[in-house]
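U., I forgot to send this yesterday:
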Amino acid sequence: MSIPKQLSEAYEQRALELVPPEKQAEQVLQQYRRHMAKAGSRRASRLGTGSRRLKPTFIKAAVIIGIVGVLSGFADYMWLRISDERVSIRYEEGIHHAMDASTLVALRERLQEVRGQLPVGGQAVVYDPVIGELFPQLAKTPILKISNPILISDLRTWEGVLEKEVGSYALPKAADGRALTFIGGKEEGAFGPRMTEEDLALLPKLKREASQSGSAWETIAPASGGDARDNSFPQYTAVYQNERGDHIDIGIELVSEQTDIRMVNGGGSNEEETIEVNGAAAIYINNTFVLASHSGQYKSIQWLETRENSTIVYSVGSESVALPKAELIAIAERMAEQ
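Result:
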């Protein structure tokens, strides 16, 4: 998952989009709330009538939790984009201040403590002012969503989940003669579930509770059938391991409506470029400031597979410092060939 693109288009686009940073977070949240209300009524209508799926006539303002685990609506000038007739995904380089490494480590540890108290399949929304200190765009909404996901360790069972929910799909094959071992699959993104409207509504309560203890969190119940159905962008992540022991995340996201997605990192990208994966436009990002990564970095490749009624957003990523870019590309190429 992660960051910037096509500079020739960027300058024109930025002139239309630029808003003061202190107002941007509120604007994005308002767009998100409007979208969730509309999407909910549409889904209810479809379920009630049993009619065929109507072709959407709107663009979704998608609030995205990026690979750094933060939401941001304001970014610097560098960006990358991939798109098809249905989906536009833009990666932007976020505003980023000097970071205190010890503060970041302490926050990771607190989040891990909360995760350790969750039952398998449990989720929690965490409020901590330190999130706003590390990521200025979240100063007014310093909350994150974490989980202790159900991990499906049997490959055939996981393939059955994908066949039911996605239809045809691609999973990795051995790259350049290197064996890949399936570790497990989960119905959420590589770094956890996305924030929902209900999660955002917990902010005032958690803020009051945190006034005494400094931080607060609350467990929430995922929707029946897994978090993948909690929003209009179902996410599925399979984790593999190569012979060196590097963990590699394979992300599959199903998008069936006209969608505009903005991904913003914390300003720590030191390598980003547009590449090709078996002829398809793709984005490669090496992000060196990632909250949810144990190594502090995350490198990834993302591309689109366009279908008649949906688009699959594929990603191949890893937090391993030792994993070379060429190996990620080789895995992505073999997936795209299927």
